Amino acid sequence: MSSLVPNELWLEVFENLPRDSLRQLSLTHTKFKGLSRTLLFAHLDFKPYAYTREGLMLPHQAGIDSRMQRLDFWASDEIAPLVRTCRLSPAYSAPMGSDYAVAESPYVLLEALFERFARFTRLERFSAASIRLTHMSVVGLCRVSPPSVLIFGGFLDYEEGIEQLPSLTQALNVSKFNFVRVRGACNLHRWIVLLNPNHLGALSLSYRRPFSDDIVHRLPLFPHLRKLALEVNPWDLHRIIPFLLKFPATQVFSIHVVGYSPADKETPLPAEGAGLFPILKEYIGPYQTLPIFLSRQSLLRIEVTRKPTSGHFVAQLREQLQTPSNANVTSLDVDFEDLTHHDLGVICAFFPQLAELKIEVSTPFVEATSFFRLFAENPILPPGMEHFAISWRFSHAAGDPYYSPDNQGAEMPDLPMLRDALVDRCPGIRTIWILRDNILLKWRSSSGEEGITTNIAHEDTTVESSEPSGG
């Protein structure tokens, strides 16, 4: 019977089984053995040493020999091709009752892994969490170059063989590289020079300590990189422009600015960055660094990640633009501290081709009531809107950050009237989502022979109605 069921279907079933059940299953049938092994040995998690206050520790020789045997098993001809991901991390304490001791040569197991690394011919992802990689380790990594590499606070320890470092320049042929900085671990400059610019397509960096001018000068252009994500300090914005210019083909740019102080709230990306990312399609980040990219005719999607007031957001747009519009932006996602009907109208005028608009607001209930009353009278959305969602956060409970006494007894909006006004304004609209306290308007339309189906949930009451097409 097992031969009648496609392997893909069996794998979907097996993926939901506990590891112990998979082991037992692999003993029942030759076919199940092969299928279950693709899951049992897909991920190699290896701890090459223990990290303690006393230093890096290894077990005594018997423990090292046991771990070497485990590595030989994983690197065998039968198992190695099944490995898809490999994760290195230290043990943060020596196992209870173990015979671990501080080692003079703590990288014995680490380098043994990388001596066998080339056998993992189908490796897709490698990650190292708080691991010191030696020169030999990096040589092994570069030989395999899995498509995706994640380094979580990883050091490169070149105390030995540092003179051979130039041989590794641009030797890491990965398509995706992610470096996450942890406290006390920041030698990103040693990693960045390893990346091959002809292979890298996505780069994510915790960029808390900008590279020196010398390192940036030596970096080549990365002509094929499409996705770039950075975490930076606000006071370093002016220093990262030369680095960003190394990625002229970036289409998706995400920037997380850490720790804006009140004095920095109006700090935009410096004007020297006017030539950055000429074919940018998607921007994700604070509104302060957005205006410099608004002139890109290729820009289609914007997500604002730090909460501005709608007034600040509009003022920032007006200050940077000669004409109040960007004709090509079709998607906007923003979280406001407040929102007025007037400011929403200005924003929609800036982006007249919006087809998707998602807004979250935190403000007193009475302002929401005023907004929705005006919004029902004049929806002001671009006529081509297809998906509109707005969530208004506040509370009736004192002590909640969104509490206001004005929330009590505020007027409820007329949801059917609001829905009809939006449909009249935007004939092609397909979804409307309005969430406010215990009030929910959820509406979806689908055109077809049976017309348009409308669902409204209002204070836990659901009303379903069917309207003819074009009605």
From TrEMBL:
What residue stretches are annotated with the F-box domain?
Answer: 5-41
Which InterPro entries is this protein grouped with? Answer: F-box_dom
**Do you know which SUPFAM superfamilies this protein is assigned to?**
RNI-like
Query: Any idea what this protein is called?
Result: F-box domain-containing protein
Organism expressing this protein natively: Mycena maculata
